[in-house]
Amino acid sequence: MTKDREKIRIFRQEYLDFIEGFRTDPPSTETLDENDRKSAERWIASLDAARGVDPFASRPSTAELLARAEERRQVDVAGEFARTLEASLQRTVDPNAMVSDDVASMGATERHADGSLHKSLLIQSERFGVRRLNLPTSCGHFIGVFW
């Protein structure tokens, strides 16, 4: 290791000792050249930014991961329902009918007080104009109910 690299290594070790409470004062950067001083300052800034971060606290629990997976599955079911409804409308009512997410109404998918997910769809056809359909995302039983 060169003498310059040795200085930065010693500085970093002394700074870690300071963080861990083995030193009362932080080490001086006076012994470092300009480039090493800038590097040390960036290193210190990154350490300061990371202090207090608990990597285990930021991970979601298994229960939360399972709930997210269930939500994604439910949203996928609602998307499939929208595609099926659109195809059915185009076949039977209006070849230009469209079904799309109603993103203007508090998000296309929202959680209600009972914990269930609900999705809003906009249905546009010549015959019926524009209608808004609110449905729970476990919506397979809604096919045929709206029309």
Describe the protein's architecture and organization.
The chain is an alpha+beta fold. The chain has 2 domains: 3-50, no CATH class; 66-142, no CATH class. 44% of the residues lie in helices and 16% in strands. The chain is built from 3 helices and 4 strands. Strands 1, 2, 3 and 4 form a 4-stranded antiparallel sheet that branches. The chain is rod-shaped and about 80 Å long. It starts with a helix and ends in an 11-residue tail after the last strand. Residues 139-147 have low confidence and may be disordered.
Low-confidence stretches: 139-147
What is the number of domains? 2
Shape: rod-shaped
Write down how many β-strands occur, each being a DSSP E stretch of 2 or more residues: 4
Cα-atom Rg, whole angstroms?
30 Å
Order of helices and strands: HHHEEEE
Tell me which oligomeric state these chains represent.
single chain
Main beta-sheet strand count, sense and barrel state: 4 strands, antiparallel
Please report the number of helical segments. 3
Our measurement of the CA-to-CA distance between the termini, rounded to an integer number of angstroms, reads 78 Å
Average pLDDT reading: 75
The secondary structure category is: alpha+beta
Beta-strand percent range: 15-25%
Query: Approximately how much helix is present in the residues?
Result: 40-55%
